[in-house]
Design goal:
By secondary structure, the chain is of the alpha+beta class. It has helices at 3-19, 22-30, 32-50, 101-132; strands spanning 52-72, 78-98.
Length: 137
């Protein structure tokens, strides 16, 4: 299994937990810390490879759109009409943030050590969940 496919598998486990089998839910519940550390490690390694980090911010913008309104006609009846109006929308912007390579390297080393420490524990939980909730293939 390649490194990217392993990361993809680890990141998809939370999605499986919502509708998974009892075994999958057990594994997901007991390997959460390992998945979090793996995700953070992948992010830090990406930052080091790029030389910068990505952050997001939400920006409120207004757009001209069409709104439904109601007007009373000359005959006294109420009619729906479409009128132009301004509406607020929230957009998410990604922007680059400079990193300190020395700090990111220390962070990577600490996360790699923590991941190695958690991997044995996570493997034991996976085996225990497989034994407790066997699946019939």
């Amino acid at each position: 299994m390649t490194r990217n496919s392993a990361i993809a598998l680890i990141l998809t486990l939370p999605l499986l937990a919502a509708c998974g089998t009892p075994q999958e839910r057990c594994i997901s519940r007991h390997t959460g810390e390992y998945r979090n550390v793996s995700r953070l490690l992948a992010e830090v390694e990406g930052n080091l490879a790029r030389g910068y980090a990505w952050e997001e911010r939400q920006v409120v913008r207004d757009r001209l759109t069409h709104c439904r309104s109601y007007e009373r006609g000359r005959d006294g009846k109420v009619y729906p009409v479409v009128v132009p109006c301004w509406r607020d929308y929230v957009d998410t912007q990604r922007y680059r943030v400079p990193i300190d390579p020395a700090v990111e390297t220390r962070k990577r080393d600490n996360l790699a050590a923590r991941k190695a420490q958690l991997s044995g524990q996570a493997a034991a939980y996976v085996q225990a969940c497989q034994a407790a909730f066997p699946e019939n293939d």
